[in-house]
Amino acid sequence: MMINNNDSKKKQQFRKLAEIRMTNALRDLRLIGNLADTRNYGINPDESIQMIGALQKALHEVRKKFSYENNDVTDKNWKFKSK
């Protein structure tokens, strides 16, 4: 089976962007994990639960996109819910 030139360019573009975005996402997740350091931050258990929930929801939506299911969009500007 022959891959047409346009498909090859699309695959190259996907791999290029995926590597950049995955590197950034993993770095940002490590930085978020640093917030659990009680020596530097005052951790509120409810806020940490909200953070983890938002991350799980976003990951679930990414999984749905890659499985070609319909999906909801996560809020782009995530904020803590006030009590």
Describe the fold and architecture.
The protein has 83 residues and is mostly helical. 63% of the residues lie in helices and 0% in strands. It has two helices and no strands. The longest helix is centred in the N-terminal third of the chain and has 30 residues. The radius of gyration is 18 Å and the shape is elongated. The model has no long low-confidence stretch (mean pLDDT 86).
Average pLDDT taken over every residue: 86
Low-confidence stretches: none
- Radius of gyration, rounded? 18 Å
Distance between the termini: 58 Å
SSE layout and pairings?
Layout lengths: L4 H30 L10 H22 L17
Summarize the structure.
The protein is an all-alpha fold and 83 residues long. Helix content is 63%, strand content 0%. It has two helices and no strands.
Output the keywords.
single chain; 2 helices; 63% helix
